[in-house]
Write a structure and sequence with these properties.
It is a single chain. It contains five helices and no strands. With about 110 residues, it is mainly alpha-helical.
Length: about 110
């Protein structure tokens, strides 16, 4: 439809790529937020599971700790989020390329 309205191949492909970038960024932000929330409340959740089911998921006699330890390495988080965003962008390249090459007459003929 955009090509029929006068958009160029580059504009149509850019629109598809910008949408994949937006979806990837939203997924990154949501995943980062939920991950940090789960990390902040990991011990509360672990103790709740212990009380509900009556057994310890990580017995202190075996593992040597009562709370679940965690170390936040920001470089790893940045690498993971950046890689996920790049994969989302790469997932949008083929649809963007195909949409940019599509002829308006052929697209409207089958609609």
């Amino acid at each position: 439809m955009l090509k029929a309205l006068g958009a160029t191949d580059f504009q149509v492909a850019g629109l598809f790529l910008s949408q994949s970038a937006l979806v990837g960024a939203m997924g990154d932000v949501l995943g980062f937020g939920l991950g940090m929330l789960a990390l902040a409340y990991r011990n509360n959740f672990l103790h709740l599971m212990d009380r509900l089911f009556g057994f310890s998921l990580f017995p202190p006699s075996i593992y040597g700790f009562t709370d679940l330890p965690a170390i936040i390495i920001w470089q790893d988080i940045a690498l993971i989020c950046g890689s996920a965003w790049i994969i989302c962008m790469l997932g949008g390249v083929i649809p963007a390329w195909r949409a940019g090459r599509l002829k308006p007459v052929e697209a409207l003929r089958y609609e």
